[in-house]
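REQUEST FORM: STRUCTURE PREDICTION
Request ID: SP-0412
Submitted by: Lab K.M.
Chain count: 1
Length (residues): 470
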Amino acid sequence: YEVKEALFEEKPFDLKKDVISVPGQEALNDTWTQALEVRIQKKEVKATFSYENAPEGMKAPADMTPENGKVILPEPEASSDPAKSFLFWKDPAGNKYQPGAEVEVKETTNFVGVWGKNYWKIVLNLRYANGERITDKEIEDLGLTYKVVGSDGVAHDPWEIKSSLDTVTFFKDADGRYYFIRGDYKIIVDDSKSDYEVKEALFEEKPFDLKKDLISVPGKDSLTDTSTQALEVRIQKKDLASIPVRVEVREDGKRVDSISFQVQAKVNGVWTEVENPFSYNDNKQGEFENPLLEGEYRLKALGVPEGKKLVVQSSPNNMAKEIASLKDTFSLLVSEENKGNLTAIWAMFDLVEDDEPGTDPSDPGKDPSEPGTDPSKPGTDPTKPGTDPSKPGTDHSKPATESSKPRTEPSTKPGIKPSETDKKPGQTTASKNHGSGSPSTGDFSLVTVAGLGLLAACGLVILNKKKEVR
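STATUS: Completed
RESULT:
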């Protein structure tokens, strides 16, 4: 039951705001009383409806009387605003229901129809396989095309692609911005006419299969009007080769395995470490666990002893280049062209003293940090002809030039000289620093200068003897 009306002293009385004064009359004597009459009726239970954030002009459905204590929640009228859609009905306790749901109503209850945003942004980021962002100009030249397939099953051309922030949609708002309307979508990236191909995709930082996965808009209940969802597509050059990278470090002509190396790649303009384990084999030749895709990298040496430094060996097989501004960090261009007929890209270094003088007094103009120029080091006997460090691996006893010879794979047993029985009469074998494509330690020019100096000295001695005889 419920209160229909109330009377006090036969006059209308509002129980919600009126008060009774005692005594209410001056003439009230000890035996008189005042009367309050309350009239009740059988309670009428209804389901009432209202809207929250509805499109302008939209009216909520009329009240409903429960049948057998239940109502079926009504279907709202079609939205008058394409930017908004009906989300759900909500009761006073916060429970959510979809239109058509049967709900028990024991007392008059107001159901609030909640309307919300009907469109969301999808941010599309294009990056290279190593994570580096692609500029707008580069995107224009890539030759990739994009399609979106919605519930209509038709592939649409919905956006003008940008590198950092873009949207995909079937709805355009008053400000000319484009969005996805609520629903499920398939994204197509067509690379058939491009030199690049899709390597992988991530949606909300999770692996996303462009061939079969769908994007749900909105994809999460907590998505607010300002939230976006991000699709990241990473591309790489088609038929990009993966090439092993091997490293060799020598100290005093002998291989050492005390120096480790770290691979760095440029990501968003910053040289960043690439996780790629490095180890040495039994022959003290190092190799990264994972081959590197063709591209430009840096190798950073780790564990270089204090007072020492690495310098690049001179060899046609050595692809490492020094970086003037960085100590013990080297550039490396990984490509099929640089690999040549070898099975890997080689980076070869000598571990030398860091405080060596700028010139070698025995050979003016030579930098003693270069391998093969210090006669005090093993393997550089100036009495024996060696090889020209500007032409590593060249045997001066033969007329052939280095450019006419094919590059050969570094040997797994460097530093071993041929036996004396293998030499031809009159032939001097150039001593090798190692057999892995590294430069030799001999210096033919140094020997030549030493020999000429010796001859000149002998001539002076003979001339002085003749003067003494006279």
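NOTES: The longest helix spans residues 444-469.
Reviewed by: T.R.
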